[in-house]
Amino acid sequence: MPAENPRPSVPFEPKNNNKQRKSAAKKGTPIVNPKTPSPAMTEQGSGFIPEVVSQRMIRRVLAFCGIPVIMGMSIFIGGYLAIINHWFRVPNTVILLTSMGCLGLSVLGLTYGILSSCWDEEEDSKGSLLGVAEFKINFGRMKDAYRASKEIEASNR
User: Fold this and answer.
1) Is 118 left (phi over 0), alpha (psi -120 to 50) or beta?
2) Whether the predicted pLDDT of 17 surpasses 60
C-alpha cells in the first residue's frame, strides 16, 4: 500500500523528491511544512516585522548599503571614462577590485543596516547615528535564536 503524500507536489518540484520524502519518513525525520510557523514564531506570537521597525531598517539600509553601492558604481564608471578619455592610466584590475570592494562593503552594510536598527516597536527613539548599541543587542538576539533552534533540532533527533 503506497504511503500517502503529506502535501501535493509543486509544478517545478523534481520527481525524485517523493523518494527523499519516503526515506525521511522511514528515518523518522519530520517533514517541515513551510506554512506552519516555527516554534520561535509561535513563542513570540507574530511572524511579521511591524511597519515602524521596517521603516527604521529601510532608512539604515539605504545609508549603510546605498552609499557603498553608489561609490562602487561611480568608481567603475569614472575609471571607464578616465581610461577612454586618456585622463590617466589605471590598470583595469585596480578599478575592478576597488568597485567590487565597494559592492562587497554594501553587502555588509545591508546586514549592518538591519541589525543596527531598533527592533522595539514601542520605542520612539531611532537609536544612535551608527547604531552600535542596537547592533550588539540585535546580534545577541540573533545568536540566542540560532542556539535555541539548534537545541530544538537536537531534541527532535
Assistant:
1) beta
2) no
